[in-house]
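During the no-cost extension, the postdoctoral fellow (Dr. R.K.) reprocessed legacy sequence entries with the updated structure-token encoder. One reprocessed record is reproduced below for audit purposes.
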Amino acid sequence: MSASTPPERSPEAPKRASARAHHYTARLTEAVHQASGDREGGLLDRATIVQLRDSLTLEMRESLIDAFATSLPKCLTEISSAAERGDHVELRRVAHLLKGSAATLGALRLTLTCQRLEHSGRDRDPAVNSGQLDEFRSVASEAREALREQLLSV
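Re-encoded structure tokens follow.
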């Protein structure tokens, strides 16, 4: 095989990728359930919030929250638009991007919701429906407010 010839993909590769995705979703779901004793009901990862509060100044946390709050409406619009168009590639791309931001900030429920969106329309997973988009918008709004409250309080 030459350097320019891509390796052949195993017919089992998509199945393994799907299994990894489902395993990751199960781990996230478990984390949300474990955090459900928190006042936020599993909305936020307490350990991440504590770590951010301990390691970043208030100004740094304000900057992070402002960047997240600024990008969130654009992500919501792009995901909704991609779902309406049936553009699964774009939907997965934006959901993946937002999932990373949410996970970094400790927004557990939003991370899980993005994970579900990211894997929609693949293999046997159904496409995104309006109920999922409504849930996504609601979770995103709750996460934004909870992060603001938890990271910006003195």
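Residues 16-152 form a domain with the Four Helix Bundle (Hemerythrin (Met), subunit A) fold (CATH 1.20.120.160). The first helix runs from residue 13 to 35. The remaining legacy entries will be reprocessed before the final report is submitted.
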